[in-house]
Amino acid sequence: MGIQHAQRASLALIFNYVAFFMAISAVTTSYWCEGTRKVAKPFCTGPVRVKQSYCIRFNSSNINDTRLVQYIYETGEEKFLMRKFHAGIWFSCEQTVDLRGFSCRKFLEITPDHQRGVLWLCIVAECLYIALLVTGGALMVIEMCSCFNMINRLKLSAFAALCTALSGLFGMIAHMMFTTAFQLAVSMGPEDWRPKTWDYSWSYFLAWGSFGTCMGSAVTALNRYTKTIIKFKFKQRTTEKKMRIKQKMLELDVPEDLWYITSLPEKADQHTVLSVNGIEPSFINSTLLDYEGREYC
């Protein structure tokens, strides 16, 4: 039982650490959502020796000469450019004009002014999620220390399970609030940012994976605490039962040689009548069974 108890404690702590690192990885990255934007190609600047797919070129390199008629060769969808973007809690990054890099800006600036409270709620809940997750893990580590007695360990285990469960609750709120904030930005955000297509990315799934692992840690810690309480109460009840039976033996003035029969069977119809020094203590068995029936019925 001790080995199983230690294994449950280690499993809860491992789940807590995994959830913490997954949460940190998700929060510090900007790949919660990604997609594409459809924008018109800019005009090519400077002398163009080779065809560039990301800009529109004229039939003459001298674009400042107004006497020449400039012809644009791109037609239809060729006039547009699909630029990739990815966004997170803190930043939204979009491909540059030449499609060779990304330029980023704060996601708070993209969110509509009257809806920024949703994003702030997401940020606060995410910070509380990580803080409570760290607190629960720290309490689990302290609880595993052998310098505490059983009562203090039970208290630490209960607080660790409570902090971890509350952490998971705040994490769920944070992830749902980000989803709401992003959808509001897609529908009511600035025109130069609204995506044509988008979907959730690996940081978003990593965040929900962290939530699932966090709840696994909370359930494991709570299960360990519950089993310890049940085991502790069972031992206490068994001790009290033996003390009552011993007191009854003293009241009946039974010799100590017969005290070993105080371990009564679970089923009254299966008890064995023993004899000590040629004496059959059937009267003691019946008396004890009657006493136990009055105590526990």
Structural class: alpha+beta
Principal-axis shape equals rod-shaped
Q: Unreliable segments (pLDDT under 50, ≥5 consecutive)?
A: 261-285, 291-297
SSE sequence, one letter per element: HEEEEHHHEHH
How are the SSEs placed, and which strands pair?
Blueprint: H1 2-27, E1 33-40, E2 80-87, E3 91-95, E4 102-106, H2 107-110, H3 116-143, H4 150-188, E5 197-200, H5 202-252, H6 282-296
Antiparallel strand pairs: 1-2, 1-5, 2-3, 3-4
Helix pairs in contact: 1-3, 1-5, 3-4, 4-5
Word description of this protein:
With 297 residues, this protein is α+β, with helices and mostly antiparallel strands. It has helices at residues 2-27, 107-110, 116-143, 150-188, 202-252, 282-296, and strands spanning 33-40, 80-87, 91-95, 102-106, 197-200. The chain has a 5-stranded antiparallel sheet. Strand 2 (80-87) and strand 3 (91-95) form a beta hairpin. Helix 3 packs antiparallel against helix 4. The radius of gyration is 36 Å and the shape is rod-shaped. The two termini are 30 Å apart. Mean pLDDT is 76; it is low at 261-285 and 291-297.
Concise structural overview:
The chain is α+β, with helices and mostly antiparallel strands and 297 residues long.
What descriptive keywords fit this protein?
single chain, 297 residues, alpha+beta, 5-stranded antiparallel sheet, 6 helices, 5 strands
